[in-house]
Queue: 3 jobs
Job 1
Amino acid sequence: MERSRINRVMAEAAEMIAKSGFHLPPFAHWSPEEFRARATPAIREARLGWDITDYGQGDFDRLGLFLFTLRNGRLADLQAGRGMVYAEKLLISQENQISPMHTHVIKTEDIINRDGATLAIRLCGSDEQGRMDRNAPVRVDCDGVPREVAPGGILRLGPGESVTLRPGDWHEFWAEGGPVLIGEVSTVNDDLTDNIFAAPIGRFARVHEDEPPRHLLVSDYAADLT
């Protein structure tokens, strides 16, 4: 993705988030220079902040997602069963913009339609080896109510509705009828190793630096802050 496009997506996302009544934390507004000077190890190591991806495919309108990681615990705490074992994100899915089929090995997550149009989620189960099984139904909880979804079936969530997805629940999602502001509340999040995609794609965008960044992306941290 071109950095200029990433900058525009950031500005548009910040506007939608504000109109929905949410407020991003102070570090969200830091310039790259401020971030370099002020970001603590807790922010950098937890990879808190801006995250915009086209999954390395170069077609953000068709295959892409906006994310902002608000808080994130430590895998060591999760393994110990105490401490900061949770994470929270805001996401924005544009109309018909797909976040491609994937699952997680560790993370259980609640996906919440916070505001906007309809969130559509296609679900598939797993076989005994954890591979996607297009013939397996998926059993999920929607706001505490058990639901069984047919193999490859689509679950649609209106504003305020949510679904709990567990490891092995394969899912892809997109917005219908307009953009959707999505909440994600989960166990500890590791985007470097805990995203298993059905297709051979990457998690992060390859960035073409055609203008200076508005804010740093989480994928900039390793190169920019070392």
Note: Residues 3-19 form the longest helix (17 residues).
Job 2
Amino acid sequence: MSEDPKSGLGRRRPGLGRGLSALLDEVGPGLGEDSNAAVPGGGFRGQMVPISRIKPNAKQPRKRFDETAQGELIESVRRQGLLQPILVRPLDGGNFEIVAGERRWRAAQAAQLHDVPIVLRDLSDSEAFEISLVENIQRQDLSAIEEAEGYRRLTGEFGHKQEEVARLVGKSRSHIANLMRLLELPAAVQAMVDRGEIAMGHARALIGTDEPERLAKEIVEGGLNVRDAEVLVKGPGGKINSRRSGAAAQERDADLVELEAHIKDATGLLARLKFDGEGGQLTIRYRDLDQLDMLVARLTATNI
């Protein structure tokens, strides 16, 4: 399909779920991968522009770049040049904003390249962010918090429902909901997840606790695995959603606690069981209508 590079994609397809590989189908095989490997068949059908005209996207999902991996990419670019183009969209003044390929752009700067290959596409803010998020998730470059923030932006700023986001990134809706709930944790705990001091499993155990920062520090200082962290959280002062004293918390039946954990794992939502000897009450907390819709869908599924 021939087109003026400045004209965009020609026939526009729905942005949600289009993905990086679909956008680059016309350009050449393998160009959606953020590496500097040689392109099968030789070259690409992009264009060369001065690197000074390419600007990073301040709102791209990934905020951290592995220094070791980036150093290896810089050396590769110094030896071979930039073999894969950077996906960009137009800005005012003849400049371009990176949609995918910031690692390559950074490496090209460090290698002191003057011109770099680009693929130019006319993309909306939502489309550009979707592509950037999908690319980083596929390459597993995002921390759990970065991924959760990306989902929150898609649902909040761009108005996508959680099930739409799940289809976009190829994940389950419960995965989306569980990750977004990590953003309920204090900023200090989120930073510990970002730095790799605690894992996503640790962080999930801390959601809804009275003192998540204190518990997170105990997890790090004790070198606890996720199972040990869950035991810690269920101890005095750490019981999920409990505002009672440590002695009262200890009185809760262990079977009820375990059932609550199973319900939380199955729904991604906090659950509370009360048992009066014969019957009881189950309370499940949801934050918004998307979470309620997800819960109703699970409860009314035909395989239940």
Note: The CA atoms of residues 288 and 294 lie 10 Å apart.
Job 3
Amino acid sequence: MPLFDRFTALDVVGPYEVLKFLPEAEIVFVATRPGTVRDAPKSLALTADAAFTEVDSCDVLLVPGGPGARALLDDDELLGWIRRMDEGSTWTTSVCTGSLLLGAAGLLAGLSATTHWGAVEVLESFGAGYTAERVVFQGKIVTAAGVSSGIDMALALAARITDQTTAEAIQLAIEYDPQPPFDAGSPAKASQDAKDLLAKGIR
């Protein structure tokens, strides 16, 4: 899981909480250099275990999104590393605007993919066909929609790596039984007042 300044924490932590249960799982956080990486200034921090130069292969690549992702769409170091990891990976995945980084690395051209609803035009600029599905499998490429959908993606991936019963056991372990108090989780469902408030900068 690569980390970068201004990543979205749940993009990383949600899938982590699922995938860490897989048999013999070893999850490695990677960044430009080992050490602390923050999702926002003076905010939550995760620790990168290794530098990009120290990790040359993986079974599962999971690229998070966040406000910082857009600033890295021409970052040769990160994009080159993503391409190298994809060459040997069994699964290459993204959450939210992490799909923009997959697209910028040239991995989504001609494929159906999803991302945060606010990043559709950028995703399609890389040759991907946007779909509003929560999780999209295209061969070994798996994209998840905005933020919380990373948990859904990780569970679906866990079922493919192991089996459905194992994935269900993981879901039970984290008590993932969503019952949101409001039906406002997509632009098609949210009220105009909620959309207006979001546009003013709540996110």
Note: The radius of gyration is 16 Å.
